[in-house]
Design goal:
six-stranded mixed sheet; alpha+beta; globular; 31% strand
Length: 267
């Protein structure tokens, strides 16, 4: 692991005009710096020097962007290889895949405990209606609205025997994947949080995790897939067994890890 400062810009926090031109602004203000675009609703830049990160954040704010700066732990290949759970995400298909996004996703409103709210505070109230019977192109894992994912029928067939994985056919060749189990907060015994603890109602981070995000055996209860969002469809984390089945799938993105500890605190 490498400790670094991460500047993050989320779509839902930006004025519409600022988000539309965000990549141009980043090119002008942060030329040559690597920008992470793996999430369609966010952009981030990681810098090891904290002072350099704060200076860049000030310039981006002057350009009209809302920027969050957090001191983070950057994961290396070895961290992904040893982790019991790894975050998974699908690739944006590059065109609108779902017809009924506005009907299917209902906003849940601000969290009653912390007041936080973002674009993923939604619940699915009806099945997605997709425009294509199979994943676009060669993709086998694609992103869905609300932070969800869908997989090809081939992959769904492999995942059918796993624990805690809900599979909902969207078409003959496309299946939505959601988690039956939700894990919102880390194990307090093993996870170090700088600042306020995670919100117990929505799981929203109010401080910064230093090192790994640990969860207990009791929290995951043997599930091969868990969600770190109340909706069960976004911020999905797959077990090693599930990752082995998904290995090599076109469109699969991994983005974070969860470590498993032997502790019976259910929070």
């Amino acid at each position: 692991m490498i400790t670094t400062s991460t500047l993050t810009m989320y779509e839902h926090e930006q004025p519409a005009s600022a988000w539309a031109g965000i990549d141009d602004v980043l090119g002008d203000v942060a030329p040559g710096l690597p920008v992470d675009r793996s999430l369609e609703f966010g952009r981030s830049i990681a810098l090891e020097d904290a002072a350099e990160a704060e200076a860049l954040a000030a310039r981006l704010r002057d350009a009209g962007l809302v920027v969050e700066v957090a001191r983070d732990t950057v994961l290396e290949d070895s961290d992904y290889e040893m982790a019991e759970y790894v975050g998974i995400y699908g690739t944006d298909p590059g065109r609108k895949l779902v017809r009924n996004e506005k009907r299917a996703l209902a906003p849940t409103g601000p969290c009653p405990t912390c007041g936080g709210q973002d674009a993923l505070d939604v619940r699915q109230v009806e099945p997605f209606e997709v425009k294509e019977s199979v994943p676009p192109g060669a993709l086998e894992v694609v992103a869905l609205p609300g932070g969800g994912i869908a997989v090809s029928a081939r992959l769904a067939g492999l995942l059918g025997e796993l624990s805690g994985v809900r599979l909902t056919p969207l078409s003959p060749g496309l299946v939505q994947v959601t988690a039956e189990r939700v894990v919102l907060v880390p194990c307090r015994t093993h996870t170090t949080v700088r600042g306020e603890p995670h919100c117990p109602d929505c799981g929203r981070a109010r401080g910064d995790v230093e090192g790994y995000f640990w969860v207990s055996d009791a929290q995951v209860a043997g599930s091969d897939l868990v969600a770190r969002n109340r909706n069960g469809m976004s911020f999905l984390f797959a077990s090693r067994r599930m990752l082995d089945l998904l290995a090599g799938a076109e469109g699969l993105t991994t983005y974070d890890v969860m470590r498993l500890c032997q502790h019976d605190d259910l929070q």
